[in-house]
Automatic annotation (TrEMBL):
Keyword Transmembrane part of the UniProt annotation: yes
Protein name: BatD family protein
Source organism (scientific name): Sediminicola luteus
Keywords carried by this UniProt record: Membrane, Signal, Transmembrane, Transmembrane helix
Parts of the chain that traverse the membrane: 454-473
Keyword Membrane: yes
Record-linked Pfam families: BatD
InterPro entries: BatD
Signal sequence region: 1-23
Amino acid sequence: MNRSVKHFVALATLLFFAFLAKAQDSGAITFEAKLSKEQLGINERLRIDFTMNKDGDNFNPPNFEGFNVVMGPSQSISSSWINGVRSYSKTYSYILMPTARGKFTINQATIVIDGKTYKSLPLEVEITAAVERPGEEASADAVADDNLHLVAEVSKTGPYLNEAISVVYKLFVSPSINVSNFRALDNPKYNNFWSQEMPVTKYAVQNGVYEGKSYRYVILKRVVLYPQKTGELEIEPLSLEVTVDVPTNKRDFFGGKVYTSTNITVSAGRRNIMVKELPTEGKPENFSGAVGNFNFSVTTTKTELNASESLQAKVEVSGKGNLKLFQLPELSLPSALEVYEPEFNEGIRTTTEGMEGSVSNNYTIVPSFKGKYPIPSIAFSYFDPETEKYRSLNSAEIMVNVIDGPNSASANTSNPATFSNQKSVVVTGDQFNFIKTKPGLKSLTANSFFGSTYFYIWLLLPILLIPIAIVFGKKREAIASDLVGNKIKKANKLARKYLSAAKKTLGDKDAFYIALEKALHNYLKAKLKIETSEFSKDKIQALLAKKDIEEGSIQDFISLLKNCELARYSPFSEVQMQDDYNKASEVISQMDKQL
């Protein structure tokens, strides 16, 4: 009996220590890495899970050398109570895509739990040649990646300088998956290109072919580019985050496919453009950078009129090409025709083939003398990239007949060599009438100044001016003490000064935009009463909105400031500088009226 009791006590003790050891073991903290497979093809994906049995902080994954992370980290947490024992598990998961064949080591990951750092063990993976898809169901990311493609279609990869090329971004989607949403992660900046985007207002689904397979696609973005620099230029990629619904092998209650949703990133990839220089052979002296296919004309609203009446002369270029990126030729007119600054007009629309329409300068001409005045022919030259040759167009000579008005020797009927600033002396017989034979002198005593009304007015005038001088002096003191008002006046003068300086530097990109930016800043300094150091585009926008400035004027002003910043690293044509100068004058005028 005693022996059996001893055996029972020994067995109970053994069970107690076993339970205690198990309890201690269950309380131990673990942190480990697990691979979905240790060998895979280069076209397969690898899943790696970092799992811990207690929550921690500062998780630091390895660098995954030899792999691209296509998804992750995603977190999952599991917690349960079984027979009074709590079970906890937290996992960080990654989906990896191999970048090369060979053997790779996934290094240690670390995490801090209860103030102590734990490390996972390094794991080795072997990447083999591409394999056929395994029999098990592919991951949602793999399916989406194989059935979704973002493509940038470039119309021409070897354009000439200033020749239009178009870039159309298309998202191809296989019929087996559905796209529920997307957003742009990174938009290209098009450095060294003059760009014009054609907004896509509606995404129309179309059918097409990609790599020999049928796809649906939508056009996401269209832009026309005019290279401003020769040599190899890079078009940055467009990147999107797309939410994709991928079918699984499961079925719902009614037999329909069950879809799972996943987010993937797609990119159009970088595209390189080799821009050719314009040929030097045959380049006309008056070539101003026009590239395309154009027509040229000079027309007038009338050819017969009287002196002091006006007519309109239009110098117009129409067709397809870089219409905003060259200068129109100027009229050469006789001195007897008074000419005002031309008014620039443009009617341009942009398609995937580039800009098309017309640009023109409208001159107002007023003749001073009677006669016939020829408007000489002028030439316009452009480069045609289709024929790879220069072409020169000449306008027809126009004869302006001034029927009635003063005579002038320079009003020669047809010879343009008589364009002179000298005017003829017309003899009328009355040229000596300014000499008076009867001066009409009067005696000084007959109309003496002393004792007259004017004498007493001039005598009392200093006394009357004393109160006026006192009022004027107080006004000057008030103005001198108004420091804020003086600052505003000074800033207004500076704004006018710098805007004038910007006009003088048209054609010199750096100097022009520095002067324009100073003018805009000093104008704001005057109107908003803030120091230049406080400027930021967001604050400017908020302050102008508080002043009840129209939204259109605010956006125009902000866009001018952005152009000044952009001009530091992007090419700007002289035409665009002129547009920005005119826009600055207009915006300041509009804001003045509203303020």
